[in-house]
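Researcher: Predict the fold of Galactosylceramide sulfotransferase.
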Amino acid sequence: MLQTVTIRRFIFAILLCLLVLLSSSIVKNNKKLIQTTHLHIHLKPKFLESASPAVPRCQPIKNVVFIKTHKTGSSTIANIMFRFGLRHNLNFALPNTKLYTIDFNYMSKPGEVMTLDFFYPLPDNQEYNILAHHSIYNRTFYHQVMPKNTTYISILREPFAQMVSTYEYYRFENKFVSMSPERFNASNPISSFMENPYIYTQSGTNFTYMRNKQAQDLGFMQEHLEPSKFKEYIDILDKDFDLIMILEYFDESLLILKHQLCWELKDILYIPVNQNIRKRKWPSTDEDRANHKKFSPIDYTLYNHFLSKFTNLLSIQKAEFFQELKYFRTILKEVRFNCMFGRTFTVQATKWHGVFNFTNQDCELSNMRFRQAVGLLYSRSNIPNYKNAHKLIEREGIYNI
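Model: Structure tokens for Galactosylceramide sulfotransferase follow.
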């Protein structure tokens, strides 16, 4: 009996030793796994983490020209373009001018004949992927300098609202008061301006910041004002542009953009940038609006044409598009809330996308003002004339790249 107990105790001791050894091995392996995982996270690309797709899908389009129109929400779209390009290490078309001067955010201006000298040159055997600066659309030049498979997009806004935003953003009040101190009423500036806008406009000019500016950004010139050429140029824009977004349908526009470019949901998440925080609600009347239609008829024709085209596109979307739109807006609220506190948050996989993180760096980049983004691009491109861009970026509050 004693011998049997002794044998049992011996077997139990052996099993206990084996259990301890096995536990020790598991702990060591787990430590290695944790260390490896930590190292993997540490070595992820310094820019944004790509969202992994839930299912096999099409290839994202990486060659994009975005014609940045004035006071139309275009800075927010440009920010989306910048983030996508940085994430995928793409080449940006950058203006060959001094950083942070008055022209640093313009590829071209009205009346200029674009040449390759306007673009900062790339190394041999490379091509531009993304252009998202302010520029006047020049189809002949852009079709020569950009890859043949480039997608062209832009955005328009209801013209009266765009004009009011322009007046407020560029602070035209002082200019107009000095031009006509007896006529211009600064307490009711929009109605005062629309009573006789021609006295504040250079004679014979149909394109100014306050007049037909969106049409000018899209390449309209004086020669296109003849009825036959006007319709012809609208047809050209219809053919050249894959999508003209509408500010009044901003989220819908972005979702359609996502589908057309085969991008991820994370790519189009945004925080509004370059909004006019000084914006006031100026009084205006139906007569003001009617006068503005007479003053800027090209913008109205252009806007109404592409508004109709866009709403027709919306009307043929299936129910799932609007389900995704509702979901997109829910995630946008999460982005804005968490970015207020600089928090990383995880978006779980759905039928529209794979799981992804929206990090504090994502928040920083989404909040970049245009001047910050441009400085970051110059610094990233190692342009010799802009070797101090890193310091400027640091001063602007954006991390080093």
